[in-house]
Design a protein that fits this description.
It is built from 13 helices and 13 strands. With 363 residues, the chain is an alpha/beta fold. The strands form 3 sheets. Strands 2-8-7-6-5-3-4 form a 7-stranded mixed β-sheet, sandwiched between helices. The structure holds pyridoxal-5'-phosphate.
Length: 363
């Protein structure tokens, strides 16, 4: 059977085509916290299993209050949804942008949603020579009178780069004066070492044109529960999104998870320590490997460019698969090609094995 939506990193399809089982592989392509979901969340769901017979609160008052406390943002500014994906989709469906600029290479859903809603998507290329850092002045020149939305992932999948609050404010100011919305996908933001410097939640009050999207799939390792949320101080726009959104799209278990997940400071701290340590260790290892260029990452994954002429991303992908590792062949991202691979940070032992294998392939 064909999967319905095919993502570049569709692991089920990859394994199905090769007769491999999920339990026998290490998934370096999913960008999910390797610690797995917190015990607090699992226990809360088990304890409340009988709530399966109830509808969730249609206004998600407790959930919005939990998220609000976590972010230090008013609950009125929060809109829960079924994963970051639903928020991306419903925001675009609501504002119906005609001409969107997507900072790219980027997650493929943005362009898909824009096109599906009948708008045009223009990709603004991040410059490889600048290690994919965003050149704001170039972006300002790229923006024109027709532009009505800018989409930015911060930190960006697949480059791992991010803009800080200083540049974010410059961008939001520029766009606000021209009636341009800015959607910022912060799916990976909790993995950054300097979270308060990168996340835009603390400036959400200041900009009515800012819509932030977040989820629990990656940092909290709960992709199956489909809990995401949007943050926006434009309450008129939020009401319109609520009006168009399906009611109860966040199921009762996602609601239960969301009421405890953000308080689990021990889990949050443990994850941040692991990712910070491994990011430093892997960066040091990668800098010793010949025939690659790697890009400084602020997230939980690394983008690598292969510099050896006769080795391509699909070859590396297959070589890793032989030892049970699934990485992301990044050739399908806009502006990248078959010289790029991406892998995420897993547990220390697994990361060591991956690096050793990469050394062996490239020697
Ligand atoms: C940048 C980005 N945003 C959103 C998502 C989807 O998140 P969710 O599972 O919360 O819908 C992904 C998934 O890979 C992603 O990489």
């Amino acid at each position: 059977m064909q999967s319905i939506t095919i993502h570049g990193g569709d692991i089920d399809l990859i394994l199905q085509n090769r007769n491999l089982k999920k339990e026998n592989i290490v998934n370096f392509s999913g960008n999910v916290n390797p610690i797995g979901p917190s015990e607090t969340v699992k226990n809360a769901i088990i304890k409340n299993i009988d709530k399966i017979s109830q509808y969730p609160d249609v206004e998600y008052k407790n959930l919005r209050s939990s998220i609000g406390k976590y972010l230090n943002v008013k609950p009125e500014y929060i809109i829960p949804g079924s994963g970051a994906t639903e928020l991306i989709s419903i925001f675009i469906k609501t504002i119906k942008p005609k001409n969107t600029i997507i900072i790219a290479p980027a997650y493929s859903e943005y362009e898909k949603e824009i096109t599906m809603s009948g708008g045009n998507a223009f990709l603004f290329p991040l410059d490889e020579k600048l290690n994919f850092d965003l050149n704001l002045n170039k972006l300002f020149k790229f923006i024109n009178d027709e532009t009505d939305l800018i989409i930015l992932c911060n930190p960006n999948n697949p480059t791992g780069t991010a803009i800080g609050k200083y540049n974010a404010e410059k961008l939001l100011d520029f766009c606000s004066k021209r009636n341009i919305y800015v959607m910022v996908d912060e799916t990976y933001v909790e993995f950054t070492e300097n979270l308060t410097e990168i996340s835009m939640t603390s400036i959400v009050n200041k900009f009515k044109n800012l819509f932030i999207v977040r989820g629990t799939a990656k940092f909290f390792a709960c992709p199956g529960i489909r809990l995401g949320y949007g943050i926006c101080s434009n309450t008129k726009l939020l009401s319109e999104i609520f009006r168009l959104k399906e009611p109860w799209s966040v199921n009762v278990f996602a609601e239960i998870a969301g009421n405890c997940i953000f308080n689990d400071s021990e889990y949050i701290e443990k994850t941040r320590m692991l990712i910070n340590n491994e990011r430093k260790k892997i960066s040091a290892f990668l800098s010793e490997i010949k025939n690659i260029k790697f890009y400084p990452t602020l997230s939980n994954f690394f983008l690598i460019k292969i510099l050896k002429n006769d080795i391509t991303s699909d070859f590396i992908f297959e070589e890793f698969l032989k030892c049970g590792f699934v990485i992301r062949d990044a050739s399908s991202f806009a502006f990248l090609n078959n010289r790029y691979i991406r892998f995420c940070i897993m547990l220390p032992e697994q990361n060591n094995k991956l690096i050793n294998k990469l050394k062996e392939i490239l020697k």
